Here is the input.
Amino acid sequence: MSENSYYNKLLNNNKEWVSHKLAEDKDYFTRLASLQKPPVLWIGCADSRVPANEITGTKSGEMFVHRNIANMVVHTDINMLSVLDYAVNQLKVKHIIVCGHYGCGGVEAAMHSKSLGLIDKWVRNIKEVYKKNKVELERIPTEEGRFDRLVELNVKDQVYDLAKTSIVQKAWKANQDLELHGWVYGLKDGLIKDLKVNMDSPEHLDSIYILDFD
Ligand code: CO
Here is the structure.
């Protein structure tokens, strides 16, 4: 199939999808167009094999989604912060899920020294996670084991980084119902592992990160 016909196929797929949806429910689009009230903010990897809705069996309207390389929560990233602020303060999501995945190319790049251009700067954030957990990681005998563990540790770190934001801490201070979670998706079996870093208050943070809004 030529690239052009592949491209046209996407537009044709869309038309088919619309007729399919309307056949199931004639008000599908009018209803969705009038309101967005998703209970979840998903922060996932940009990897094409980790589609948030598909792997969780959720539909349009159920998840507000932000994706970047290696599902990072970088506290100077205005894009992520804008999504987070909108999700927490306007949409009032109840859950924020950071979902990483085994076999993540971003995490793999962080474990090696080869320069890949601009992405080196982004990957630097993951190198910091490696550095922080170097003792634990280097006790793992296999490269594959270290890679899998760094994927998990990176997700945990991003959940903590969410908890460190003023956006999340202000919501908790106002008794808003908001829980943070960390998951890892397995490309090889499709299963999600819950890392049990569920947080609904800043109590697990080092006191240096707890902000005083008074
Ligand atoms: Co990835």
User: Anything to note?
Assistant: The mean pLDDT is 96.
